[in-house]
Design a protein that fits this description.
Radius of gyration: 25 Å
Distance between the termini: 64 Å
Number of strands: 22
EC number: 1.2.1.27
Strand order of the largest sheet: 14-15-16-13-12-18-19
Structural class: alpha/beta
Oligomer: single chain
Organism: Azoarcus taiwanensis
Shape: globular
Bound molecules: nicotinamide-adenine-dinucleotide
InterPro entries: Ald_DH/histidinol_DH (IPR016161), Ald_DH_C (IPR016163), Ald_DH_CS_CYS (IPR016160), Ald_DH_N (IPR016162), Aldehyde_DH_dom (IPR015590), MeMal-semiAld_DH (IPR010061)
Family: Belongs to the aldehyde dehydrogenase family.
Largest sheet: 7 strands, mixed
Keywords: NAD, Oxidoreductase
Number of helices: 16
Helix content: 25-40%
Length: about 500
C-alpha cells in the first residue's frame, strides 16, 4: 500500500454519475507487469464511499426499473458501438496493466462486447410466460422483474470481459449496479465504464468502488444489495458465497479450475498439438479455462516431444511487442508462487520436460516472465496437479483408455472446463455424456460459450446455480412474479351453470 502521490494518476470512483477522487488514506499501485512501471494508484474505498455508491444505486433503481425496455436496450446498442470504436485504446491499456498480448487483450474486450450486444436484445430475453384459461376465465402469467441493487466483484485476468459479463445484463434487466473491479488492473475496466456512461447509462445506475477485502466484505454484508456476482479464486469465492448468502443475498460465484484435455490416438495431430500449446500457454496460462492438464490416451503419448517442441517455440515478451505469444504474469508475487509450484513438481517426482523458469526477455529485465514450462508423469497428490497453478505451466499424464481419462477427470474436484480431441464421433459422444464437467469442448480447447448460451462451470468451480451471462443470468437478475388473474365483466354473459373454480 502507498499514499496517493501527485505524480501518478489516480483511479476514480464512480458514484451517482460522477467520477470522484476517493478520500481514503490507503492506495495501491497499478503496475505494468513487463516493466514494474507504476501506471496509476487505485484507492481502497472507505465504508462511507461504498455506502454512498449503494445509496445512489438504490435511489436510481426507483426510476430505472420503470424505464421502458426499448430505452434500456438502446443504451446498449450505443455502448457496443462505442466499445468497437475504442477497442484498440482499451486493449492497449489492458496490455499495459495486465501483461497479456495485444491480440489477447482485444479478444478480452471482444468477448465482453458480445455480452453487450446480447444485452441490447433484452427486449426478447426478459419475457415472461402466459398460460391461457388455467381455470375457467382465469389466466396465469409471469413477470421477470428487476430485483434492485446488484453488485459485481471481478478478478485480474479478464479486466474487460468479466466486468462486461456482469453490469450490462444486470442493468439491461432494470437493476442498478455497484462494480468492484480487480485492484490489480482497474484501468481498462474504468475505460469501459467511462464508455458506458457516455452511452447514456443514467447517474446512479452504474457505480464503481475500488478496493479489496474490506470493500468485498462490505458488499457481502450491505442490506441494500440484493445479489452478488463474483468471479475469482475458489478460496475467495467460497468466502463471498457464504458471507453474501448469510446476509440473505443471491450469490453466484465462478471460481478456480483445473481443466483437463484428453487426446485420443485418432485425433487430428497437427490441429490438436497447436490447440494444446495455445490453450495451455496463451495469456501466460492465466485463464480460468486454460488447458492445464493434458491426458494422453494410449499411443497419443508418443506426441509428447512434439508438444514440447511447440511449447519451446512460443515467444515470451512484453505484451505490446509484435510477435509475442505470451506476456508476463500479473505480479512478482504470482511469479514467486508459480516458481515455487514448479520446484515442488520437480521435488515430488514429475519430469520437467521444459523448464521456463529463467527466460531471457531482451529489454525487459524486470518483467514477471516465466516461459512455457511442461511436466510429464504428473499424478494426483502432487501439488502441481492438486492446485491451480494459473501460470504458463502445462502438466501432462498418460492413461491407457478413455474410461481411465474420464474417471480421472471426474475424480478431480474442479468442474470448469474440459475437452476431448478425437476424430471418433462415438468416443466424443461417450465423453460428452459421461464427463462431469460443466463446459465441454470437442476438438475445441477453450469452450467458453457465446452469450446465446451461459457460462456453465460446475462442481468445485462454481457456487450458485445460474451462470453469469446468457439466458441463465436473466433469471439471476430478476424475480419471477407469477400472476393468476380473473376479470369480471358484467357485459359478458357467463355460460349457464358454469362456476369458476380455483382449486
Ligand atoms: P481473487 O480471488 O484473488 O480475486 C478476485 C476478487 O476478490 C478481486 O476483486 C479481489 O479484490 C477480491 N479479493 C481478493 N482477496 C480477497 C479476500 N481475501 N477477501 C475478499 N475479497 C478478496 O482472484 P484473482 O487472482 O484476481 O483471479 C484469478 C482466479 O480467478 C483464478 O482462480 C481463476 O481460475 C479464477 N477465475 C475464474 C473464472 C470462472 O469463470 N470460473 C474466470 C476468471 C478467473
Amino acid at each position: 500500500m502507498t499514499q496517493a502521490s501527485h505524480t501518478v494518476p489516480t483511479v476514480k470512483l464512480l458514484i451517482n454519475g460522477e467520477f470522484v477522487e476517493s478520500r481514503t488514506s490507503e492506495w495501491r499501485d497499478v503496475v505494468n507487469p513487463a516493466t514494474q512501471e507504476v501506471l496509476a494508484r487505485v484507492p481502497m474505498a472507505t465504508a462511507e464511499e461504498l455506502n454512498a455508491a449503494v445509496a445512489a444505486a438504490k435511489r436510481a433503481f426507483e426510476s430505472w426499473k420503470k424505464t421502458p425496455i426499448g430505452a434500456r436496450a438502446r443504451i446498449f446498442l450505443k455502448y457496443q458501438q462505442l466499445i468497437r470504436e475504442n477497442m484498440k485504446e482499451v486493449a492497449a491499456i489492458l496490455t499495459a496493466e495486465q501483461g497479456k498480448t495485444l491480440p489477447d487483450a482485444e479478444g478480452d474486450v471482444f468477448r465482453g462486447l458480445e455480452v453487450v450486444e446480447h444485452a441490447a436484445n433484452i427486449g426478447t430475453l426478459q419475457l415472461g410466460g402466459l398460460a391461457n384459461n388455467v381455470a375457467s376465465g382465469v389466466d396465469t402469467y409471469t413477470l421477470l422483474q428487476p430485483i434492485g441493487v446488484c453488485a459485481g466483484i471481478t478478478p485480474f485476468n479478464f479486466p474487460a470481459m468479466i466486468p462486461l459479463w456482469m453490469f450490462p445484463m444486470a442493468i439491461a434487466c432494470g437493476n442498478t449496479f455497484v462494480l468492484k473491479p480487480s485492484e490489480q488492473d482497474p484501468m481498462s475496466t474504468m475505460k469501459l465504464v467511462e464508455l458506458a456512461v457516455e452511452a447514456g447509462i443514467p447517474p446512479g445506475v452504474l457505480n464503481v468502488v475500488h478496493g479489496a477485502v474490506d470493500v468485498v466484505n462490505g458488499i457481502c454484508d450491505h442490506p441494500d444489495i440484493k445479489a452478488v456476482s463474483f468471479v475469482g479464486s475458489t478460496r475467495v469465492g467460497t468466502h463471498v458465497y457464504n458471507r453474501a448468502s448469510l446476509a440473505g443475498k443471491r450469490a453466484q460465484c465462478m471460481m478456480g479450475a483445473k481443466n483437463h484435455v484428453v487426446v485420443l490416438p485418432d485425433a487430428h495431430k497437427e490441429q490438436t498439438l497447436n490447440a494444446l500449446a495455445g490453450a495451455g500457454f496463451g495469456a501466460a496460462g492465466q485463464r480460468c479455462m486454460a488447458s492445464s492438464v493434458v491426458v494422453f490416451v494410449g499411443e497419443s503419448a508418443r506426441w509428447l516431444p512434439e508438444l514440447v517442441g511447440r511449447a519451446r517455440a512460443l515467444k515470451v515478451n512484453a505484451g505490446h511487442e509484435p510477435g509475442a505469444d505470451l506476456g508476463p504474469v500479473i505480479s512478482p508475487s504470482a511469479k514467486a508462487r508459480i516458481l515455487e509450484l514448479i520446484e515442488s513438481g520437480v521435488e515430488e517426482g514429475a519430469t520437467l520436460e521444459l523448464d521456463g523458469r529463467t527466460p531471457d526477455v531482451a529489454g525487459y529485465p524486470r518483467g514477471n516472465f516465466i516461459a512455457p514450462t511442461l511436466f510429464s508423469g504428473v499424478r494426483p497428490g502432487m501439488r502441481i496437479y492438486d492446485e491451480e497453478i494459473f501460470g504458463p505451466v502445462l502438466c501432462t499424464m498418460a492413461v491407457d483408455t478413455l474410461d481411465d481419462a474420464i474417471a480421472l477427470i471426474n475424480a478431480n474436484p474442479n468442474g470448469n472446463g474440459t475437452g476431448v480431441f478425437t476424430q471418433s464421433g462415438a468416443a466424443a459422444r461417450k465423453f460428452q455424456e459421461e464427463i462431469d464437467v460443466g463446459q465441454v469442448g470437442i476438438n475445441v480447447p477453450i469452450p467458453v460459450p457465446v452469450p446465446l448460451f451461459s457460462f456453465t462451470g460446475s462442481r468445485g468451480s462454481k457456487l450458485g446455480d445460474l451462470g453469469p451471462y446468457g439466458q441463465q443470468v436473466i433469471l439471476f437478475y430478476t424475480q419471477t412474479k407469477t400472476v393468476t388473474a380473473r376479470w369480471f365483466d358484467d357485459d359478458v354473459v357467463a355460460p349457464v351453470n358454469t362456476t369458476i373454480s380455483l382449486k
